[in-house]
């Protein structure tokens, strides 16, 4: 698997990445000299216990949080050296973000929520509206396009949030516990959708604490105390391998905790 990964294209790379937060007179090192490569077309999963730094790492990789030291490199260019215009373009067009809390605008219909980032990016309203409806149809909630978030289920809201993240055709989707607020059944639908997207060449980086969700990964990154504890290469997901993957991930995590 290592040989295979060397042939892959590196999409994001970190070099001695550190992040320090201050609380009063105290400082907390949330990311400690992290060196990591995220490959184009991979479904990368970041796991770790609460407070391990997994969400911090996701925010740093996506440019949504500033680094303290080190480098985050996207397609050969350091994110921290972007101009204000470049970082705005990066966040609007290069990445999409899916949150656990969903964060849809309550007074906007689902289609308006999906289309909104396209408007912000200055694209044609007609083209954006068409693409937004196409995306909603693609993920199975086109019939709910004109409904408000409060008028649909949590799973349908999260699907709309994923469509919103896709509206500007990003190169990578970042997802922070996207199934954490959903029922097991709703969560499985979201994971199936993300897996299908990945199988169609969409790069995905997802944080989760759930081993079943982690089974969707090509590559599992285990974070502990702000450092990378280990990396597990899994290859492309197949439903037939679910139980074997669960066992493999469990054994990997258990071994790393010893």
TrEMBL record:
Listed InterPro entries: AAA+_ATPase (IPR003593), ABC_transporter-like_ATP-bd (IPR003439), ABC_transporter-like_CS (IPR017871), MacB-like_ATP-bd (IPR017911), P-loop_NTPase (IPR027417)
Gene Ontology molecular functions: ATP binding; ATP hydrolysis activity; transmembrane transporter activity
Keyword Signal: no
UniProt keyword terms in alphabetical order: ATP-binding, Nucleotide-binding, Transport
Pfam families: ABC_tran
Top-level lineage group: Bacteria
Cellular compartments per GO CC: membrane protein complex
Domain ABC transporter: 12-250
CDD domains to which the protein is assigned, alphabetical: ABC_MJ0796_LolCDE_FtsE
Family: Belongs to the ABC transporter superfamily.
Protein name: ABC transporter ATP-binding protein
